[in-house]
Amino acid sequence: MMALAESLRDFIGQQAQIDDARRHLDATMGWLCRAQDAGGDGGVARMYDLRRGWGASYPETTGYIIPTFLHYARLSGNGDFRARALRMADWECEMQMPEGAVQGGTIDHPPTPAVFNTGQVVFGWCAAFRAAGDERYLASARRAVTWLCDNQDQDGLWRRNLSRFCSAATDTYAYNARTAWAMLEYAALTGDSEATACAERNITAVGALAHANGWIAKNCLDDPLRPLLHTIAYTQQGLFEAGLKIGDERALRIVLEGSGHLRRHFERHGVLAGRYTQDWRPAVRWRCLTGEAQTAIVWQRIAAWNGDAEWRDAADRLTAAVCATQRIDGAPTVAGGVKGSFPVYGGYGQYQYLNWAAKFLADALMLSLGDPFAARDG
Questions:
Q1: 267: which of 19, 129, 302, 317 is 20 to 30 A away, CA to CA?
Q2: Could you tell me the pLDDT band of residue 8, with boundaries at 50, 70 and 90?
Q3: Can you give the residue range of the structural domain that contains 198?
Q4: Which is nearest to 239 in space by CA: 265, 214, 273?
């Protein structure tokens, strides 16, 4: 019944009114706390499904939720969020596989190593080490980065241990640029030259997959010809943040070009499509709210890089468009959560409120509120 009611709400356009950014941020973080409590183990439940309830804890996304909680703890002055972040980091240490990898999928799946998932938890361990100085976190990050280096091919791409949960007919995933960014965050803490070299090779290789229009091939977990805005944004954010760290001007220009096409679509329509083709044409009618929040973050970072306030204005308006789909009151299982798709019956995270969608909206809102560190997962 909840799935039907929410579908009708979205279909007839009964969206939440846009309140101030801080109110939406507080509601989003409250939902993430409930998602952590639902897991019961320190990790964060993957989602709330309107048909089946809370999912199991998800190592990948719990990893990059850690920095979000630490940023919010500083912004709010609420130490509980710091304590929660460190519980997540402790749980990640317990869940790390013997070879140093992080498993794909949620903890109710048999553990299999996954490159992307491993990179995302490196963000969390690095952030936890910075916050608490506990060497356990740095040791786990070191084991993970060593495993990532060992699994990278000579050309800088990862082709082994990609994830058994991805189905695209491709030999690699460009969105592992975000894994390269995580390795650079680790290298910034440790001075690890091998981690830096591996990350640089990947960023060069991902840049070589780019078309002149800023399109990057092989950047979707299930449909590379019509990739999700979610994985487009993963790729752009990883390429941009890594490019800033290593001074790769070409990587920055690729993201600027691709983001320009998305921004023009947004200026015309007020929202973004859930999938795009290689000529930046929308491929579906539904929206990917996760990808919209991520894209707003990328635009905020472009504005900080080039000083163009129009990028910041567009980012704030895109963040507001996501907030307009969010309910900040009502049942605690959905209040403050972010749907995978809009409408909720769309093609990504169907009938689900996703923990990573909430994470990225929280980051986008903190950037809108003027926290320059909110999007820096490391």
A1: 19
A2: very low
A3: 2-7+26-368
A4: 214
